[in-house]
Each structure stands twice: as C-alpha cells, then as structure tokens.
Amino acid sequence: MEKTIAITGATGFAGRHAVAELLKGGYRLRALVRDPVAARLPSEVEIIRGDMGDDEALDALVRGSYAVIHLAGALWGLTSHDYFRVNAHGTVALAEAAIRRGTGRFIHVSSLAAREPGLSPYAASKRAGEDAVGVIAERLNAVILRPPAVYGPGDRATLPLMRELTRPLAVIPGRSDARFSLIHVADLARLIARAVTEDVGGLQEVSDGTPGGYGWADLVAVASAEQGRPVRPLFLPMAVPGTVAALAEIVAKVRRKPGLITRGKVAELYHLDWVARPPELVLAEPTRFAQGFAETLAWYRSAGWLPQASGPDRSPARPKEEPGP
After folding, report:
1. Is 301 contained in some domain?
2. What is the pTM of this model?
C-alpha cells in the first residue's frame, strides 16, 4: 500500500519540485491548496482546499498520513502579524493536527533567515515556527530543514540576481565581503524526500555543501566564465535599497497590499554571514553553482524570462517548459 504524505506549499517554487520528487519515489500525495483550479498540480495529487488558518482543512490534510511536509510560508506581509499568522501560528496548528492524528514524521522546511530573528519580521516568524516545532519535536518525530537561498529553473525570486549576472555591470544589493550558502531546488527536493525516511532529527542547515559557502567574487567568476566575457560587480550602499524599501512600505500600507521589498528584506540581503553549518543530511553529488547557474539561465531563456545570449550559447540545451507561479 502506498504511503500517504501530506504537504503544504505544494504550489510554490520548491513545493512543485518536492511534489515531483515524491511522486517519483512512489508516494501518494495530499496537498493543501487555497485554489484547486489555479494549483495546476499533477492529477494524482489529492487536493484539500484550505489554508494554514483552517483547522478543519489541516485535520483533513494530515488524517491517515505517514508523514507531513510543511513548506508553506508567508514571504511578504504588511505587518508582523501577517508573517506570524502563517509562519508561526499556522505551523503550530499543523503540528498539533499531526500529533492528534498520530502522524509518524514531521518535516518542517524553514529558512536560514530564522538564524537571525532580529533582522526582519519574516526571520522572527520563521524562528518562532521552528521553536514551536522544537518544543514538541519528540512527539512529532520532527526534523527542521533550514535551506539558504534556493535557486533553479522556474524561480522568480532569484531572477533579478540572475539577470544582473548576465550583464557586463552587475548591480548587487549586498556587501562585497558577505558570504552565503546556496542550494539548487532539485537538491532541496531530494533532501526533503530523503528526510521522510532517514533517521535524522534536530536542525539541519542544508546547502550544496560548498565549504565556507560562496562570496560574490565566486558568483561573478562563474557568470564571467559561463558567458565568455567579464562581469564586473557594482555593490549598492545599503542606504539605496533601504530608502526604496521605506518608501515602498508607505505605498504598500496605502494600497493595503504587501510590497516585494521591505526594510527587513534589505537587512537580510546585507547580512554578512549566511553560510550554512554542516548538516547530517547531505547529498553525495550536490549541484554546484557553476552547473546550476548554467541550467537556470538556459531555462530562463527557453521560457522567455531572459533574452537569448548574444554570443555563442554554451549552456546545455533544455526543452521549452511552462513557467511556474
């Protein structure tokens, strides 16, 4: 009999890749979605309509499940409450539902931002969700995954950065001396699938395993080599995006609609150390940035998200794919 896995955040960037990986592993999936029509999930995925604030939907989601994978999260909000409602309170509600229904495994996919809760309401809310899961971890057989920046084909969040890295002068909102870890979305999906059955718990800061992470010079060197011409970085002083973010927050409150840039997000971008600590959960052959960058650029170009390369394209050929949300 197929084991049922309940999943939240299945329609997001990482979620869609996780769904594909789990289906490949032979699992039966049940996903919580707000709009079943817009979800566009594979037909074999059972749909539960609802959100993280719907206790009845959460109960239906986890009922009879072998494991729960929690990927849903609020990335933007007008107030701190908007973040905490999903990232903290929603996580608690899902965990409690899993305990009531006797779920055997709980995989909470958080964010490396949770390591620095003082930087932003988002980071604070992710940390609060982690802390709540940690308190009841033994009753849940829980593991917390903290991915760093996730990139890969279909990602809109890192598209602006990837676009800059294709230009002769790359404008970078960050500090020149910052270091950070990265993970390709396909690798994150593989780690999530492995976490279902592997005997690992606690807090796992997953990444591509590059010792010491990356610096901006590393990314610029990869971009230059991939395109066969130099890419020069131009680092913006923090005051520039900080001012833009402050103005954007005012506009967002007037419109009563969250903006894509906030002062908290700027603080995260300019933090010096986003290098993941070595976890127990690792891949034998992770995707390094040089390979992942080439694959991602090829996908963006095939999907029309980036213009075709002006010179000879040395990226691996990829078929046309439908852009995700």
Report:
1. no
2. 0.92
